[in-house]
Amino acid sequence: MSDQSDSKLAERNIPGMNRNARFAEVQRAENVGSTLKRIALYFAHEKIMVICMLAVVIFGTVCGVYAPSLQSRAIDMIAGTVTGSFAKTLIFMLVVYLLYSGSQLLQGLLSAKISQRIVKRMREELFGKIVDLPVRYLDTHSHGDVMSRMTNDIENISTTVSQSLPSLFSGVLTIIGTVAIMLWYCPQLALLSFATVLLTLLATKILSGKVRKFSRKRQMLLGQLNGTVEEMVSGYHTVVAYNHQDMTAEEFCNTADSLTKAGIKTDIFSGVMGPIMNCIGNIGFVIIAAFGGYFSINGLISVGVISAFIVYAKQFSRPINEIAQIYGQLQTAIAGAERVFTVLNEVNEDKTGEALAEEKSAAVTFQNVWFAYEPEHPVIRDFTLTVPSGKKVALVGATGSGKTTIVNLLMRFYDIDGGEIFINKQNIRDVSRGSLRQNVAIVLQDTVLFSNTVRNNLKYGNENAGEEQIQLAVEISRCKDMIDFLPQGYDTVLTGSGETISQGQRQLLAIARAFVADPKILILDEATSNVDTRTEKAIQDAMQLVMKNRTSIVIAHRLSTIRDSDLIVVMDHGAMVESGTHEELLAERGKYYELYMTQYAGFAT
In the CATH hierarchy, which top-level class contains the domain 6-344? Predict the structure, then answer.
């Protein structure tokens, strides 16, 4: 045992922790106290297993501290300074070491089980919270950051619970026990042995600072390198089209060279940790051997005590080094837990309210509606509109005029700041979001399909839809031939959100999905933007049948697709500037006329 370095012992007692990761950049929590209290609540759910693990740690620590004293007694028996049964002492020492090893194994199993249970509970709570968060939260927070909290932060917590906390607890107990027994054997030699601890702490502080500095730089460069690769792979067609292969390769090589230099420096400083700790440990052995021999000659201690002191000195420095190493990991885990709790503290989307009245008609009325994503910057200004039941109303206007925002307000993705929105005579503020959205189907410009079968994707808005209803929706949306062409037809699994089929085909499936939902109100937000003109015309003809007796709101940039609308509303800067039929608006020669003539002349709007 005395031949092993502190660093190797530390890594052996903290599985999975590589020497560079120990000195990675430390994230710090802003409110450590409250975060630790909340983490403790998760441990409270596993209190029986936690108590068992603590008992095992205490038992193992006692065995580890007691074993060297048995070794000391055995050596003194050989030297003839003490009497007793040498064989029994050896057997007892073997049993103690076996118990110590068994407790270490059991400690690892219990800590792993506790960590996985805690992380499972935390992960379920976080995912449940994300599902219930308002749309505003996910619109205003980076999706990558939200994913990082679900994956990286929780994984850090799991690693800390399963590895660092047991090591920290057993390390503190080992230090206390070792110091006590060394002082009991020989206070003078114990104090001399403790002098090497200062050298250990000083070396750890200097080297960890250097490694952390270059590790931080290496992580930054690794992020840049990954970003370069991701951009090149995702935008490969663009890179090749503009003949930027050499430039991209040069950029990659420059970043890779810098990463290599930072990695070499990190490995150098982290690599010398073991030899330096060995050197300091050997200095401690020299001190113990020299002064221990002197004390032994003068009759203060026996030869066996010197042997025990060598083991105790190693036991004493090892947990100190471990605690220094896991300190950063503990800080990072607490910071990660704080980030997770920040999401859990968010207010859920309000799902209370009454059910939408069961009526065949579904007239939608916007009355003096005001809304702003940010205060003092209104996006919708005093908007008033009535969409008669069973009629088709189109919203047109330049990008940023507020068309999609109107749809978001109707779906209650956001609540209005002023005015009222009614379905029939029922204020949607009084209607639960769940009931409201069960009666409204929406097809967005950015199509979202899920990694599931085609059939389950079509039934996403209506799980009780029958086969006839699905077949009718597929026929109307003109995607029957496409589905029949797939390897397993309706049972074909769409991987990667439907990346194996074209954008236009995904759009057709999204339209069919809306038809299967059989809503009272149908919203089409640039629903045919990704299909060719011929398919678009076929869909438009079929949609006339589907939208018959169904309230429909259509957002379109291609004005040719909404010429047959019962009412066309022209929006500009969040307000209605014109309304009427296609012919009426052309006759007025206003904003709609300008948009239409611009498209007719062949220019994009």
Answer: mainly alpha
In this prediction the pTM is 0.71
User: Contact, 324 vs 20, CB < 8 A?
Assistant: no
Q: What is the pLDDT of residues 384-430, one digit of tens each?
A: 999 998 888 999 988 888 888 999 999 999 999 999 999 988 999 99
* CB-based burial, 367-392: b 16+ in 10 Å, e otherwise: eebebbeeeeebbbbebebebebbbb
Asked if residues 442 and 519 have their Cβ atoms less than 8 Å apart, the reply is no
> Rounded mean pLDDT of 454-480?
86
List the 521-525 sheet strands across, edge first.
440-443, 521-525, 551-555, 392-397, 567-572, 575-580
Query: Widest CA span of the chain, in angstroms?
Result: 119
Q: Name which of 392, 401, 404 is nearest 445 in CA terms.
A: 404
Name residue 49's amino acid: M
With the CA atoms of 432, 438, 443 and 445 taken in that order, what torsion angle do they form, in degrees rounded to the nearest 10? 30
**pLDDT at position 531:** 64
Please name which of 448, 459, 457, 467 lies closest in space to residue 507, comparing C-alpha atoms. Answer: 448
* Separation of alpha carbons 511 and 442, rounded Å: 9
